Amino acid sequence: MTTFLVRDMTCGHCEKTVKQALDKALPGVPVAIDLANQRVTLEGGDPAKAEDAIRDAGYTPERLGMA
User: Which end of the chain has the smaller Cβ count within 10 Å, N or C?
Assistant: First the structure.
């Protein structure tokens, strides 16, 4: 499990954009988004690929950790 803080994900449109980018980059990997706390959590997949996908979508992820 990997969690990112995405401080510039501030609205529902941002959330949808990030989710679509991750679904495209990492198909089948479960993604949970907590918009209120600006957190994106992946259950599996390649964290570096996820980080790149979020950046390519126009956002600035900070990796908080892996479990």
Answer: C
